[in-house]
Amino acid sequence: MADYYDEKNWYVVHTYSGYENKVKMNLEKRILTMGMEDKIFRVVVPTELEVEVKDGKKKERERRKFPGYVLVEMMMTDDSWYVIRNTPGVSGFVGSYGKGSKPIPLPAHEIDPVIQQLEEPDDVFVILDYEIGDTVTITEGSLHGHTGRVLEIDFNNDKVSVEISMLGTQVVDFKMSEVQRI
């Protein structure tokens, strides 16, 4: 058996789709009730903030980065493997070849960026109902009701530049939520 089984490593657990948070909760309960805190350390469902701007309304929600998967930091022993593998909603480990074989842990270069993002979240996934070149209408402010064409979208500053024809052509910046696709 490889010596990485004697160390704390990250593993990927496959779950039934939509059950990631329930599996996380079940695992955390089983770890406590079965006294596995010294072998199974963290259970994580990586998420990112998703902002959707539709019909001029801004909605925020958490979005799973890896649907159908849960990350587990653990020492791979027969007991810890059994606890994870026999948790309701878990269909197996990624990197395991069946017949009771132990999985291979995630390499550091794959897991480190994911863990860093969890500790310092800065990613926001934005969904807009318009894109560059689309005709939009302004839904708020002094230019409410005017139409124009989207020239630029600045996700970092939550702004959209719109070309409006009104006594000549001018470019005006708006908040993403103040613009709606026609």
Describe the structure in your own words:
The model has no long low-confidence stretch (mean pLDDT 85). The longest helix has 14 residues, at 20-33. A five-stranded antiparallel β-sheet has the order 11-10-9-8-12, with no helix packed on it. The relative contact order is 0.18. The chain has helices spanning 20-33, 78-85, 108-119; strands at residues 8-15, 40-44, 47-54, 57-64, 69-75, 90-93, 124-128, 135-138, 147-154, 159-165, 169-175, 179-181. It has 182 residues and is of the alpha+beta class.
Short description:
With 182 residues, the protein is an alpha+beta fold. 19% of the residues lie in helices and 41% in strands.
Q: How many helices does DSSP assign?
A: 3
Whole-angstrom Rg: 24 Å
Largest sheet geometry: 5 strands, antiparallel
Low-confidence stretches: none
Structural class: alpha+beta
| Proportion in β-strands | 35-45%
Strand order of the largest sheet: 11-10-9-8-12
> Helix amount, in percent?
10-25%
Number of E-state strands: 12
SSE succession: EHEEEEHEHEEEEEE
What is the CA–CA distance across the termini? 62 Å
Shape: elongated
Mean pLDDT: 85
Task: Name its key features.
alpha+beta, single chain, 12 strands, elongated, 3 helices, 182 residues, five-stranded antiparallel beta sheet, four-stranded antiparallel beta sheet
